[in-house]
Amino acid sequence: MKKFMKGITALILLLQYFSLAAEISVFFSPSDKIDRIIIKKLQQAKRSVYIASYTFNWKQGYDILEKLSKSGKDVKILLNFLPYQNFNVTENLQVKKWGKKSCALHSKFMVIDEKYVFVGSANFTESSMKWDSNNILLINDQTTARFFAENFLSLWSNSIISKGQLLINDSIEIYFSPVSDCVSIVKNEIKKAKESLKFVMFTFTSDEIGGEICRSGIKGIKVYGIFEGSQNPFSNEYNVMKKIDLLKVKKDCFVNIIHDKFLIIDQDTAITGSFNYTEAAKKNIETLIVIKRQDIVSRFLKRWRFLWLWY
């Protein structure tokens, strides 16, 4: 009887775990056509859409948001730079420019019905989603969505975010700077590497993170990195790393822009978000996402291999 009850208890705990586990998918532009994936979810919105982004220049997305607002949905868009389009601002479709000069709004996330979250490196622009190399996560989880929605509404009121971190079932950690020390989080994850570090980075000027990667490489960890070729060569960590024979780094030759910001540690952890490895990112409103779910990490590894072979 005791064994039976223990078995029932274990089953209940297992079911609770899976019922609480967030559904996570990752998509990569331009191959995955992430604009269409977002549009499909937007068209299903029933109550609200909250968008925080560095920029927003996306005509098709704008048209859908306008229709949603006219049908009574609560649509709010907060931007670091106002778009080229003239939004027809209404009671439901509201567009606001980030008001703090001390830090930039560099996060890129969308919350739909406080149920779905899109978050990653892609701005909500034509070029970012259709032509540049980017990644974006789709998270179907109410706890995560409420976390982002609360932070959005805090930003909307021109305040710094209300919640700096969210941890879900040991599989995903979500952080917002400047409330969370994202540089220390990245460095601590790098220190855990046992075999390899693989990264793709739009802007990489952080001596702190660059130094940690270099030390790992000198200790015997295999390091491979792809840098966006258009970035300033004098401040970029590429010029430091290429001088160390143990590190294998490349500049991209992509037709548009490598706008990704992700790091893979061994085959266990992927780190992504809007957080470039720069000093400025430490004080900006940014997202940093640490993923320890094997299926998602394997997707990042596959993407990294494609980019490494392509370049």
Contiguous uncertain segments of 5+ residues: 9-20
SSE sequence, one letter per element: HEHEEHEEEEEHEHEEHEHEHEEEHEH
- Tell me the domain tally: 2
Structural class based on helices, strands and sheet pairing = alpha/beta
Cα-atom Rg, whole angstroms?
A: 20 Å
Using the alpha-carbon principal axes, give the shape.
globular
The CATH topology name of the largest domain reads Endonuclease, Chain A
Superfamily at the CATH H level of the largest domain? Endonuclease Chain A
What's the total count of β strands? Answer: 17
Rounded to the nearest angstrom, the distance between the terminal CA atoms is 62 Å
Short description:
The protein has helices at residues 2-20, 34-43, 59-70, 126-130, 142-156, 182-191, 207-218, 238-241, 279-283, 294-310; strands spanning 23-29, 48-53, 56-57, 74-79, 93-97, 109-112, 116-120, 124-125, 134-140, 165-168, 172-177, 196-201, 222-227, 247-251, 261-265, 269-273, 286-291. With 311 residues, the chain is of the alpha/beta class. 45% of the residues are buried.
Description:
With 311 residues, the chain is of the alpha/beta class. The chain folds into 2 domains: 23-163, Endonuclease Chain A (Endonuclease, Chain A, 2-Layer Sandwich), CATH 3.30.870.10; 182-310, Endonuclease, Chain A (2-Layer Sandwich), CATH 3.30.870. 35% of the residues lie in helices and 28% in strands. Strands 10-11-17-16-15-12-13-14 form an 8-stranded mixed sheet, sandwiched between helices. The protein has a 7-stranded mixed sheet with strand order 1-9-7-6-2-4-5, sandwiched between helices. Strand 6 (109-112) and strand 7 form a beta hairpin. The model is unreliable at 9-20 (pLDDT under 50).
